[in-house]
Each structure stands twice: as structure tokens, then as C-alpha cells.
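Ticket reopened. Same input as before:
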Amino acid sequence: MEIKDIIKEENLVYSKTKLLTDTTLTYCPGCGHGVAHRLLMEVIEEMNIREDTIGISPVGCSVFAYDFMDIDMAQAAHGRAPAVATGIKRCWPDKFVFTYQGDGDLAAIGTAETIHACNRGENFTIIFINNGIYGMTGGQMAPTTLPGMKSSTTPFGRDVSLMGNPIKITELVAQLPGTYFVSRQAVHKPANVRKAKKAIRTAFEVQQQKKGLSFVEIVSNCNSNWKMTPIQSNQWMEENMFPYYPIGDIKIEGKLIKTN
Amino acid sequence: MGELRLMKGNEAIAEAAIRAGCDAYFGYPITPQSEIIEYLAAEETHKRTGMVLLQAESEIAAINMVYGAASTGKKVMTSSSSPGISLKQEGISYIAGAELPCLIVNVVRGGPGLGTIQPSQADYFQATKGGGHGDYRLIVLAPASVQEMSDFVKLAFDLAFKYRNPAMILSDGMIGQMMEKVELFDPVPRNTEFDQSWVITGKTADRERNIITSLHLESASMEKHNQELQKKYIQMQEQEVRIEKIQCEDAEFLFVAYGSSARICQKAVDLARAEGIKTGLLRPQTLFPFPTKEIEKMAGQVKGILTVELSMGQMVEDVRLAVNGKIKVEFYGRAGGMIPTPEEVLKAMKQKIIGG
Ligand SMILES: Cc1ncc(C[n+]2csc(CCOP(=O)(O)OP(=O)(O)O)c2C)c(N)n1
Ligand code: SF4
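Engineering reply: fixed in the latest deploy. New output:
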């Protein structure tokens, strides 16, 4: 049997996500950003809400998310995506609005915007990619960098006595009455991918029901700046990131179900 | 004739915004302009016209909310005073780069730093030369009365949408706080039918997806974008200059002043003429585009120019550029909320220009 005999309609188990453009992803091979993009676009496609969806890309490796996501999008200043989303959603309460942000964007420079949008219970979705490092600028320390973890600005490891402990912003926003659904997921294995997609879907359904802010963290890798192979980085993530950032739902239907 | 009311300048801005069909206001309180958001709140704009009103957590958040709402084609505004406007600069640069229309009001107070809450015109450089990073310009309107506080709101929105460029009303604590008679324009219906070609409201089957961004990583594309922006600014300079000339026909000496300072100079012109000194006043209503040609023309008529500002001398640089050495240009100004009297200004004219 030759390859061409296998490529047949009935053998298709996977096809390209319709709402991703044909632009080649600029992410490093093995990086979690690409999978997260796909899941987000699949949810929008499956809910059939593209005509009413507006996305906000951050400053970070995913600044060019608008080149890959085939929907209307705005690019926000570093950390300000939740404010940009607020401006849109307040004017268009029936549209679906989401931000897609890294940890530096969301939990360092944009902390105020994140917390206040969550506190006001703005009716949009925040997708938060936590890779514990500044990817785009070459691997500097992030607010989520683990204790002892090396980065280009903590070459001997993060010293918590000087730099403080990594911030668990997801647990923090879950405390606010304005958040209705808060979940932490990963996208490095098929089972995680399925759960992450379910969480993103729930987040958009919360928007549809106008229940408040929905927040999905995706603990992800940055194999390039962690200076590991993709496989090593995923293993390292499981062994080091997951104990500090445990995977699972944190708040469902406005109720905290898990406290870390 | 429109409705007549006695109002504070700040209130006139707020009422005019509602009447101009503004869709949303995002702001953070700061003296001397908090009456704008307070007036809007008391008016319950969501009931009156459906206008969205939100007190943001900071000026940074407010300007980025403006960026978001403006991306969807809505008529949106924010207002603040000097320190708050400084915080907005990154956002304003993004808005100019992404070519979004909006209105930003600066009711200027004295600086630098936390400065004073008293009136000042020391934000001229920031407003007209960029303020934020990169090569961009705001359309800058300078009201000199409560009437113009109202009228310029409508004008600013019209110009902002015409050029897809942020417009600023550069006022000061004096005009913001003082009460005057104002004739309000009739309410304009809110924009429901707007140019959909660039806005982001969700990609529909009948059009390409839209992207609002100021990012141009490739040098050639960045340069091209800069050139396109310059074309807009040149067009503004050719078409949008607005000035008021007071007693200029036979003037031998000229005051150039905007906003509050122009009010003082107008009185000084009367005082001078009572003494037989033929002075006039040229009042720029647009600070960008700047009335370079109009001032150059006056330089062919008068013997000298005194620029008066509530600052240590900022607009005077543009006046000197316009005059280009032809005649003498001097400056008189007070800072920190100190307001010169018409007599003081006339004395400066005599000492620095007429006698000098
Ligand atoms: C105001 C401002 N400060 C700093 C930067 C530089 N900068 C760009 S991306 C970035 C960090 C991004 O890290 P993160 O949000 O974690 O996203 P990642 O690249 O890891 O996906 C920084 C500091 C900027 N663009 N703007
Ligand atoms: S630098 Fe890191 S976060 Fe950025 S694309 Fe590469 S692996 Fe992903």
C-alpha cells in the first residue's frame, strides 16, 4: 500500500482548524502557544460565533496571534488587553470578546488591568498562557518564574528573598466575586488538550450566559528559553510547574471548588 | 437658536459629548476636570442616549478602553488633567499608530510632577509635538470660552473620524472651572450607521477580517506606514487650520495667544487701543495644525509679536518658526497657576516689543 492509498476521505481523522489562517506559525517547534491557538479557534468554530467574536492579542510571543487566528482582532499595548476588551465589551455586550495573554503581560505589567477587569466581572474571557518566563524578549524572569528557576535575568536561579515568590494570579482572581469560571489546564498531552478545550468552551458559554468573567490559565512550556528540547520541557513542566500550579478547575459557577 | 445655559467649562464638555452622540466615556478622576465624569454620571447617560460610562482603575486603563471601543467604530472619549494625560501617552501613541478616531480632553494644570491644580498651559509641547513615542500628531483644539468647550467637542469628533486620528481638546483649569453662558447645539443622533470597512465587530461572510494594530515589524512596512501618516498630517495642515483674529486689520503690534491667555490678551488689546497703541490678537484655535502661514502673513504687517502663555514659553517656538526671523518675537508668561492681568501683559508688550 502506498501513501496515496491512505490519503482518502474515509481515513481522515484530523483536519486543519478552519479558523486558523494558512500563515506559518512563528512559534518555536514544540511550543504550547500553537495548540492553545487551535483549541480557541475550534471552540469559536464549533459554537459558530465567529461573526460575533473579537479577540485581543497581547505583547509577547503571541503578539501576532492575529496573523494566525482568522477572526477580527485588535493588538493591545503590553498588559492592557483586559482594558481594551472592557472598552469593546461595554459597547458591544452581545459580542464574544477574549484576550490572549502571557504571564508577563497579564501578571506583571498588566496586573492592575487584570484584577480590575476580573473584579468588575467584565463579561469576557481571558486565556492566560503561563510559561514561567518572558518568551519574546529572550527568557527573562517572569512573575511566574519558579523559585530557583534560571532565566537570563536570574542566571543563578530566582532568589525569592530578593525577587519574591512566583505569583499565583489565577488563584488570586478566583477570589474575586466578579469571576464566574476559573480553570487551570495544560496542552502538552492529548488528555490535557481535551480538558483544556472543554474549559475554553465553558469559558465562552459563561460569556454567552453573561455570568461574568471567565479565566482559563494554560500552564505551558517555553522550550527555547528554558533551553530544553520540547520533550524535556514538557517533562520539566510536569515535574516542576504542575506542583506549584496544579491543573484543574478552581472556580465553577461562581463557587471556589479548590483552594491551593 | 439652541438652548442657552449657564455652565462650567467642564460641564459644557460633558453635555456636548452627550449631544454629539458620544457612545462611551472612560476616565479616572483628577482635578480640575472631575466635573466631566461627575456630570455624565449625574445625567445617567445610559438612560439618556445609551452612552456607556465607566470609571476606570487608572488613566492607563481608560485610554486602553478608548482604544478598544474606538476599534469597533464607536465615538469614544476620555478626559484627564496633566499627570493623567502623561500616563495616557503610550495608549495615545498606539491609537495614533492604529489610526483610530477618539477624543481626549486635557484640562491642563501646572507641572512638572504633581505640580498644582491651578490652571496652566504647560502641556503645549506634549500635546502638539507627540507626547508619546514615535512620529505622530494629534489634532489639537484650544477653546477660549465655555462656548468653545461645547462646540469643539463636536468639531473634534468630526475631525477625528474624518482623519481616523485622535483629537485632543487642550483646555486649562481656568476655562474648565469658570461659568459662562453657552448655547448648546441640538443633539446629534448616535452613530449607528458607520463605516464598517475597518472596524472590528466580528468577521462576517461579506468582508475580509479586520485587524487593528500599530505593529509593523518590517522596516519597509513601518516606513510606509509613517509616510501614510505624514500625508494625513500634511492634509490637516492644509485644510484644518482655524484661528480668530481680533482687531488685526490695522495692528502694528500683535499678541499671539490661545485659550485663557487669549482672553487676557484680548482685554490688553482694548487697553492698548485706549492709549492709542494699535495692537491686535491672533488666537490659534487649532494648535495642531498650527497657523504657521497666518502668522507668517501677519509678520509682513506688524512690527513685533508678543506670545503670551501660562507657561515658561512653549508655543513661542512655533511662532518664531513661522516668523522665521522677519520681525521680533518675544515671550511673556506666568507659571504654576499665576495668572497675568491685562495690564501686566500690556506692560510686557511695551517693554519687550514696542520700547525694545
Ligand atoms: C511597555 C513595554 N515594556 C516592555 C516591552 C518588552 N516586552 C515585550 S514582550 C515582553 C514579555 C512577554 O512575556 P510574556 O507576557 O510572558 O509572553 P511570552 O512571550 O512568554 O509568551 C516584554 C517585557 C514592551 N513591548 N512594552
Ligand atoms: S520563545 Fe518560548 S513562548 Fe515564545 S514561541 Fe518560542 S517556545 Fe514559545
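Chain B touches chain A at residues 23-24, 26, 52, 54, 56-58, 60-62, 64-72, 74, 76, 90-91, 94, 98, 200-205, 209-215 (CB under 8 Å). Residues 18 and 48 of chain B are 8 Å apart (CA to CA). Please confirm and we'll close it.
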